[in-house]
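Retry 2 of 3 after timeout on previous attempt. Resubmitting structure tokens to design endpoint.
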């Protein structure tokens, strides 16, 4: 098991049990106490846990979605690689929608195609693509969520209804057999409308999103045309995606 996978598993354990001891982690994952100490030190430095005598607990903020700018700093190399690969799918002359997602922002930063039109509800993505001479930018109006830096509301939905685009680049918080899910209803409603406006729906999600279920479900898996991720999911998830005709693109396998 990779360190990142072990750290995610420790967080999930803490969410269920509130605290965990070093010896428990050793037994759960078959690793040494030195390995556990290194994991916990790295997690504490990232603000994911609070170390205690002989173990760890969750700080309150890890039970919430981090603010957007904080997540940009924390995001893994895998998400940068997903974004870079996604950007290669943008063709000259494409009309695209990009949702408010850190992984999608990494895609925006890497767009090299020309004569591209980008529609987005993310003020950060709008800022990124507005600096590219070959990109025209349409920023959707609406109410601003200052924490997560996206625009939402009835005016956002109404404006989206005027557009039809070639591709939608959509970040994901949860991907399960039940579909795509997100923590915020107001953002999820906008994403649901975005799916309706695109000929091709491309979801960008690192491996930690598989099996996760968030508060608000926006669609079933049948809405996804292409899923780009950093590691191959387990066979059960592969079978579920295949049953819904979702094409899977894995960064590590593309590199090879």
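Retry 2 succeeded. Sequence:
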């Amino acid at each position: 098991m990779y360190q990142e996978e072990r750290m995610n598993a420790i967080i999930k354990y803490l969410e269920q049990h509130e605290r965990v001891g070093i010896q428990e982690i050793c037994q759960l994952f078959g690793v040494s106490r030195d390995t556990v100490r290194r994991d916990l030190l790295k997690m504490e430095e990232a603000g994911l846990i609070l170390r205690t005598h002989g173990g760890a607990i969750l700080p309150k903020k890890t039970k919430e979605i981090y603010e957007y700018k904080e997540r940009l700093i924390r995001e893994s190399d895998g998400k940068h690689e997903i974004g870079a690969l996604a950007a290669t799918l943008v063709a000259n002359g494409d009309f695209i929608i990009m949702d408010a997602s850190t992984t999608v922002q990494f895609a925006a930063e890497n767009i090299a195609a020309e004569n591209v039109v980008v529609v987005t509800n993310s003020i950060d993505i709008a800022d990124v693509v507005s600096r590219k001479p070959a990109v025209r930018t349409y920023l959707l109006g609406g109410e601003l969520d200052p924490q997560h830096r996206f625009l939402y509301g009835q005016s956002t939905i109404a404006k989206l209804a005027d557009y039809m685009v070639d591709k939608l680049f959509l970040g994901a918080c949860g991907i399960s057999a039940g579909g795509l899910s997100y923590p915020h209803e107001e953002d999820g409603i906008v994403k649901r409308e975005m799916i309706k406006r695109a000929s091709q729906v491309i979801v960008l999600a690192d491996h930690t999103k598989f099996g996760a279920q968030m508060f608000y479900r926006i669609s079933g898996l049948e809405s996804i045309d292409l899923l780009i991720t950093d590691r191959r999911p387990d066979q059960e998830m592969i079978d579920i995606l295949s049953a819904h005709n979702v094409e899977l693109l894995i960064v590590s396998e593309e590199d090879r």
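Attempt log closed. The chain has two domains: 3-63, 69-255.
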